[in-house]
Amino acid sequence: MRRSRKDGDSVDEERDSRRRRIVDSPSSPAEEPLVPYNDDEDDERRVLDHSGGAEEVGRRVETEEEDDDDADDPYGRGSILDKSNRQVEVRRDCPYLDTVNRQVLDFDFERFCSVSLSNLNVYACLVCGKYYQGRGKKSHAYTHSLEAGHHVYINLRTEKVYCLPDGYEINDPSLDDIRYVLNPRFSREQVEQLDKNKQWSRALDGSDYLPGMVGLNNIQKTDFVNVTIQSLMRVTPLRNFFLIPENYQHCRSQLVHRFGELTRKIWHARNFKGQVSPHEFLQAVMKASKKRFRIGVQSEPVEFMSWLLNTLHADLRTSKKSSSIIHKCFQGELEVVKETQNKAISEKKEGGGEHNGALKIMDGATENNNIGTETYRMPFLMLGLDLPEPPLFKDVMEKNIIPQVPLFNILKKFDGETVTTTVRPPARMRYRVIRLPQYLIVHMRRFTKNNFFREKNPTLG
Known about the structure:
The protein is an alpha+beta fold and 461 residues long. 32% of the residues lie in helices and 18% in strands. The radius of gyration is 35 Å and the shape is elongated.
């Protein structure tokens, strides 16, 4: 009995000594009662302390929300430790895959959390279609999974699918169609065969649509944007350029990347619906134009197209002298002859000065009597055509006549012989196209403003 008591005492003393060691250790649970004690974590902290000033990083790794994506750690602290110390389980089978509702999925809007309005590390719930931030235990997506019972989420940046609150990654081929809708992809072979494909696609609601001919949602008087986008989508070299993101991956402009995303969505053959919402592109337009073009305010399509082409060209070129796909498709060259009255010569002539009427050539300009002629070349992206004035009187049937003018008659403005008179400054202009672009853009200004109302010219060209 004594021997057993001595053995028991020795065991109790050994336990007490262990407890003293644990309490005396700098990483004991007494200092951090919310963090469970673990020998592996204690060893990790010691390694971090010896590595030089990394103690705070080690503690942050234990207390922050866990995630294996760089977007969950936006400041770049502790992401390496997360990846090296914790592995996310990847499973092919998930009991919640049948809850995915493709009817409610819409990736055309801004990728912001519906609760925090943050654009960092945003996940989309594949059951209800709402966006939430993060997938850690304190994140909005984790809370939504517990409250609503929705368990399947996709990261909008990495396209990885996770099951919450379990936290494992789902690797199932049945989710590939969602990834293609989130980020449409085209290979160069597919782009080359795009015009040869005449097959119609079918949306989830049963409607048929032809890729590239889908409609764009009108978001509060944004029809001037829609008509511009639809016309640019018919330009084959421009479309092929923006269908492959590697062509403009060097560009940092959000407008360029949003225009490329919109192009890929319009020409994508696996959309869930037969129309596309240009919401993200409109947000980029508002920011790049400093709210010159914005949602809810009507604007002229010709002004928007001119601004869009010039802005895309400026963002795509790598240097001031380099060209871009915009100039390769739309830039032409005009020869302009400008005749103006030389006031100095006319005043001298009126004052009794002598002038022999000979031609005087100075820097590409000529002077004949009191008329100065200047010839120069200028590039253009679009040509403005002048419509004839509409008739003032009605016809026999008491209806306004809508005249029709052949397009060739309107284009005579650029034959180099037809004279166009300008009021301010007073001059006689002659234009001649000396180099045609691959795609010619012409516009006819139909609306004019006077002191009372806005008048439309109904002439058909």
